[in-house]
Amino acid sequence: DPKSKVNKSTEVDVDIREIGIYKFVARDSGHHELVLESPLHNATIALMDLDAVQSILEVYMERFNVLKENRMNLLTVIFKNHGARSGANIAHPHSQVVALRVMPSELRLSLERAQRYFNDHGCCLYCKMIRHEVQMDSPLNSSKSRVVVESSCFVALIPYAATVPYETHIFPRRHADTIGGLTVEELADLARILRDVLRRLYGLLQNPDFSYVFRNAPYVHE
Predict the structure, then answer these.
(1) Contact at 8 Å (CB) between 52 and 88?
(2) Of 166, 172, 173, residue with least CA distance to 203
(3) Average pLDDT, the chain
(4) Is the pLDDT of residue 101 over 90?
(5) Which whole-number Å values give the CA distances from 74 to 31, 34, 59, 218, in the listed order?
(6) Where are the alpha helices (DSSP H) in the chain?
């Protein structure tokens, strides 16, 4: 059970100081946790039963919401590297949960682009993209060629300008921006579609090295 195998880091008080226009963290901050996905050394999500996959996602959700309680955490990144070429240096199946005090530049750029699209068009960029891909409302996508698989709550698709071969994005149909707010139904559906995508890659490419990341929006602390 992954719930019993979370390596929890120690919470640290953060001293943020300013010198002129510059701001810096005077002490170490943040959290870095490992989620051990299975007691089996050679297990992989692609071949697990759905209950095991859902248990992993439940750990992600739990840790995301717990780390939100520390107001010094700006956001939490959840990711998995599988295989040496993906950067994994631990063979046992695991994922990582990292709470940060700073926002990665790539995420900041994505948020800025989405905000700019909303300002220009009055709607969510990602909701519009999902409708475009699924409903085939453009002659450029008459065959739904980029949709990998659909479920009741999620859509997995290849982006129009993928940066690497087999790049796949999984989007919620509902306008949701973090794993922390998913419903029980959505989490179960996410387990199904995540395993489906990874199982397709496993069969097609014979257990390839890969990485996946949950792109959660920053926390909103009241």
Answers:
(1) no
(2) 166
(3) 88
(4) no
(5) 11, 19, 19, 6
(6) 50-68, 105-121, 125-135, 184-205
Whether the CB-CB separation of 211 and 85 falls below 8 Å is answered with: no
pLDDT, average across residues 118-139:
85
Identity of residue 15 = D
Direct distance between the N- and C-terminal alpha carbons of the chain, in angstroms, rounded to an integer: 34
Q: Which residues contact 157 (CB under 8 A, 6 or more apart)?
A: 130, 133, 146, 147, 148, 168, 169, 171
DSSP state of 90: -
Answering whether pTM is above 0.70, one says yes
Is 76's pLDDT higher than 60? yes
pLDDT of the residue at 141: 54
**In which residue are the tokens 């002659």 written?**
139
Question: What's the alpha-carbon Rg for the chain, to the nearest Å?
Answer: 19
pLDDT at 102 (0 to 100) = 83
d(CA 95, CA 93): 7
* Cβ count within 10 A of residue 170: 18
